[in-house]
Amino acid sequence: MTALDDLARLARHRGEPVVQPRMGFARPARMRAGLARTRAARALTAGTITVDSYTRVGDLAGVREALAAGAELNGFPLVAHGPGVTRAVVAGIGEAGFPVQVRHGSAMPLPIVATLLAAGLDATEGGPVSYCLPYGRTPLRESVAQWARCCELLAAHGGHLESFGGCLLGQLCPPGLLVAVSVLEGIFFRRHGLRAISLSYAQQADTAQDIEAIAALRALAAEMLPDVDPHIVLYTHMGAYPRSRDGARELLRESARLAVWAGAERLIVKTTAEAARIPTVEENVAALETAAVTARRHRGRPVPVPPQDTGVLAEARALVEAVLDLDGDLGRAFVRAFERGVLDVPYCLHPDNRNRARAAVDAGGRLRWVSVGAMPIRGITPTAPASAVDARSFLRMLSFVRDAYDRPPPTPDTPAHIRTHPSARDNDPDK
Amino acid sequence: MTDLTVRDGTVERGRPTVLLSSVSSDAHTWNLVFLQLLLEDMGHDVVNLGPCVPDDLLVAACRRHRPDVVVISTVNGHGHIDGPRVVRRLRAEAVPPEVPVLIGGKLTVGRGGAGRVAALLAAGFDGVYEDDDGVAEFCGYLEGLRRPALEGGPG
Asked: Which residues make beta-bridge pairs with B21?
């Protein structure tokens, strides 16, 4: 087991999540300082090296030109810097008790995985579906083949891999599909030899629905991955983020409460700068500490949101079983599933995605299917009418969370249906 | 319900066809999905090439679909670099001068400024639309294209 697994186990024991930023700088000294500052934050933290977007798409010439011109990159150019420089960046910082994970977003991550292992690091994230479909045009078949090799390489070094399957396009994907892709990628990792695994879920627009989804993720993971005990990582909202400082901070706090209530062992935070630009180290540290304070305040208290079962687990299970039935080789099953529309990510424009499924956010913030396309989940969860999706309503749905949190806090006259603003909750000890 | 499928066949004529695309380095999708819905609501057929479109693919798609309008949407801040390169190739190899080529989104990392807009127009774009305010202006331009030329006067 890696240091990241040990820390997640400690988090489970303490009832408060590990908190982790997204952070990447081109210059090694700055990257090292950011990691040291993350480690020193007053919270249970893990460090992150976020890779820049040229490295993500394998454009090393682009990296070298930018570095030569002194241009600022949006992350750490891991492969161009190489294992020696990277090893020096984490020396004396990334060790027992403070894991460092490489986050990258690549559909073809072999050079990244090989470099991080050569640098002595052992944790990364992604997946053959979750880092292929949403972000480009790499054929799914090629991504699957390369991710299989990466899993085997990581497994040979006892490494940790987190599925990014709980995000997909970040918003407007109902939770049954997020849970299914996360679990399926976990099974893919396991079949390619990994034992240190985490599964993910991204905060959506309704906390009750999110709690149900994370419970479904845990239940299905226990069933499908009985011998590896994956931990669960929650991403603070990945869609359009509030522009106001107060709104941004409140959405972060809600994700910290969600992590405690749902028992997620790790939380990847967003900062107050999210809507505008890449955050500074200090903004990231402030977000880590805010999340930790909120989580500690809520641990051990009763969950104020009643448990519910609207069918998320049944939907996720139906999808997982349908994909596993397509082929004994899960990589081939993924390819066939997208060809046939057994998996279909709503609004995803990747050439290998059927793009027949549609989803909407209802007035209360719950994600609902408008059409499930050819996915074998018709009638399991409540749906929304087709009229919900036109350009005007679409823009409203895309900014639903941003608008709800940028609005001034509700007064006693605020309509009851605006439930996403958590200060509307009576028994909230943060108030 | 609106059909958002990325089409690879030839689009049947009737409604004006808009070819919608991002540029090679930009992985963003939601801007493209929104614009497709908006353009279809306005009565256009849309061929949506999606994110991370290599220049060669964009040129080939313009040759095949012969769109009435080409719309480039990019929000990663590199549009001022990628845009001129793309439009020069489109003008030289695939898109006749009477077909408008438009670009919009977040085109620079910092503030855009008139100089950037002028450079994009000089490179061959017929319209440059920045940030949220640009959407209404963009819609106005397309509405203008759809209006048939007036013949004679009232009489």
From this structure: B72
Closest Cβ opposite residue B29 in set A349, A351, A395: A349
Q: How much is the pLDDT for A420?
A: 47
- Do B38 and A370 make contact, defined as CB atoms within 8 angstroms? no
DSSP secondary structure letter of residue A321: H
CATH 1.10.630.10 fits A3-298, yes or no: no
Check CB contact of A74 with chain B, cutoff 8 Å: no
As a whole number of angstroms, the distance between CA A85 and CA A76 comes to 11
Residues 136-155 of chain A whose Cβ lies under 8 A from any Cβ of chain B:
136-137
**What pLDDT score was predicted for residue A233?**
98
What residue spans define the domains of chain A? 3-298
Residue A162 CA to residue A150 CA, distance in Å, equals: 13
Comparison of pLDDT for B36 and A417, the residue scoring more: B36
Element (H, E) at B65: helix B55-65
**A304 class by beta-carbon count within 10 Å (0-12 exposed, 13-18 middle, 19+ buried):** middle
Q: Is the pLDDT of residue A12 over 90?
A: yes
Token pair 């801040």 is found at B77
Judge whether A347 is closer than 8 Å to chain B, CB to CB. yes
Quick: pLDDT tens for B51-74: 989 999 999 999 999 999 999 999
Measured at the CA of A249, the angle between CA A244 and CA A255, to 5 degrees, comes to 130
A48 touches A101 (CB < 8 A): yes
Contacts of residue A347, defined as CB under 8 A and 6 or more positions apart, other chains included, come to A169, A172, A355, A358, A359, B4, B29, B30, B33
Task: Name which of A204, A187, A265, A381 is nearest A5 in CA terms.
Answer: A265
Residue A400 makes CB contacts below 8 A (sequence gap 6+) with A205, A361, A365, A420
Chains A and B: how many Cβ contacts under 8 Å? 62
- The residue of chain B with its CA nearest to that of A349 is B50
- Tell me whether residues B27 and A135 touch, CB distance under 8 A: yes
* More confident of the two residues B77 and A3: A3
